[in-house]
Design a protein that fits this description.
single chain, alpha/beta, two-stranded antiparallel sheet, 12% strand, globular, binds zinc ion, Mss51-like_C, Mss51_Znf
Length: 459
């Protein structure tokens, strides 16, 4: 069995979270942007791209204004504590909006002017502000026009996002903003695809995978690909078993439209996939009689090639502080059916295309593991956990010894029973983290995990 941990920067500040690509693209971009802006000091961010910049309180979009309200009601001023104002609790909330990035950032203009730290990330906040307004602008989002199947003689490259988009036939991504939008949309399917694919950048040679890890990947690739020289086409997969990807602790992953997940299938033309989103925060389909909110701002939002980013407008902003909220219900498609009879918990299945079936199960994985445990096969099945937070303290379980919160990996209400169950399947387990620090925290937590022999795992 192998436990592979890669560092990703999932959705923090909207940088690409692709494990292979983030280091190639994200870092370069950050470096360039900063050095350019540093030339201009405080008045830096005035080079806005036509009309996309608004202070949060003056945004034309209710969801952005609501986000600003939430920040103003929760965030303390970063300068107050060092300026002797810490005792004035109410005064220290951020009421002043930075004119450069538009975010509520300080209690007052005076403290904003005193703060040297804010300069370091103001330009990135400005980017997020403009990206959010761009997404809602109603323009035709060519970044979200996804290509169809790959011709079998055309190899796909995962060296960096640009090569991937080029070799997959995406519309050209001319601006950094387009690249951010597209990499954010594709981050989950491409993280999975770029790790499993035989052209993956994780190889024994560059030491990004261990011998044990490469054996697990080799087993999966005997099913994912065809023998060398054979055409990798849909017909070649007639007798192949289905590939099952179990995404545990799924949240936003489960609300991504199926046509975006279909991009994973198109990397493996001869495979049939069954994706399982399993976790207490899995998004379920809308009730049958619940009206589907129609977005008014984009004329193309009803087509299957558009994502549902605009649908967010209808809902209030929910602050994402410690435990992110369950995403909104997903659209109910023609063939969506309930699977509650099958799994005994709230769940659904969509046979989306001949190549792709999606099942969502809203429950802790340990509740449904017994139904799967006899069926696992390391050649066809793999687990993916996106930023599971193994090393974070549990919100629900306290240690009997000292009364302190257990780490989530040891907590019966979180990952305590799940990790040993996954390891017993002998299937590959892929875990990502927000940052290198996050990944290291998760790895260290394995040492205190019950029923997990760290000696059996390699990183
Ligand atoms: Zn202050
Ligand atoms: Zn700012």
């Amino acid at each position: 069995m192998s436990l592979l941990l890669r560092s990703t920067a999932r959705n923090v500040l909207k940088y690409s979270a692709h494990p292979t690509l983030a280091s190639n693209i994200g870092c370069q971009r950050i470096g360039c942007y900063r050095s350019f802006l540093n030339l201009f000091g405080k008045s830096k961010a005035t080079h806005s791209e036509g009309g996309l910049f608004f202070p949060f309180s003056q945004s034309p979009f209710p969801a952005v204004r609501a986000r600003g309200d939430a920040i103003r009601s929760l965030a303390p001023c970063p300068v107050c504590p060092s300026d002797g104002h810490a005792h004035k609790v109410n005064l220290s909330l951020v009421k002043y909006e930075c004119p450069d990035c538009g975010w509520p950032s300080h209690c007052s203009k005076e403290h904003w002017e005193m703060d040297e730290e804010h300069n370091k990330y103001c330009s990135r906040l400005r980017q997020v502000n403009e990206d959010d307004h761009d997404l809602r602008s109603g323009r035709k989002m060519h970044e979200f026009q996804l290509p169809g199947p790959q011709a079998y003689e055309e190899a796909i490259s995962f060296s960096n996002w640009d090569l991937f988009w080029y070799t997959r036939g995406f519309p050209s991504m001319d601006t950094e903003r387009s690249r951010r939008h597209a990499s954010k949309l594709l981050t989950y399917p491409l993280t999975i695809g770029s790790v499993l694919h035989q052209n993956s950048g994780l190889t024994l040679n560059n030491q990004r995978v261990t011998l044990e890890g490469s054996r697990s990947l080799a087993a999966l690739r005997t099913i994912l690909h065809v023998p060398p020289g054979a055409p990798d086409t849909e017909e070649a997969g007639v007798l192949k078993p289905q590939i099952r990807i179990f995404i545990l602790g799924a949240r936003a992953e489960s609300s991504l439209p199926p046509h975006v997940w279909e991009q994973l299938c198109m990397l493996f033309p001869s495979c049939n996939f069954h994706l399982f989103f399993i976790g207490p925060q899995v998004s379920l389909p809308k009730q049958v009689n619940q009206p589907v909110p129609q977005s008014s701002s984009s004329p193309l939002s009803n087509t299957t090639q558009q994502t549902e980013v605009n649908a967010e407008e209808a809902s209030e902003y929910v602050p994402n502080i410690y435990e992110p909220p369950t995403p909104k219900p997903i659209a109910r498609l023609k063939r969506t059916r309930s699977s509650i009879q099958l799994y005994g918990v709230p769940s659904y299945t969509i046979p989306y295309s001949p190549q792709l079936t999606i099942t969502g199960i809203q429950a802790n994985y340990s509740e449904v593991h017994p139904q799967f445990q006899e069926t696992f096969d390391p050649y066809t099945d793999a687990f993916f956990l996106f930023s599971p937070g193994f090393g974070f303290p549990s919100m629900a379980s306290l240690s009997e010894l000292d009364g302190k919160p257990l780490l989530q990996i040891a907590s019966p209400s979180e990952w305590g029973a799940v990790v040993p169950a996954m390891l017993a399947t002998r299937c590959a387990i892929f875990v990502t983290g927000f940052s290198p620090v996050d990944v290291e925290r998760d790895i260290r937590s394995l040492e205190v995990a019950p029923d997990v022999m760290v000696g059996g795992c390699r990183f």
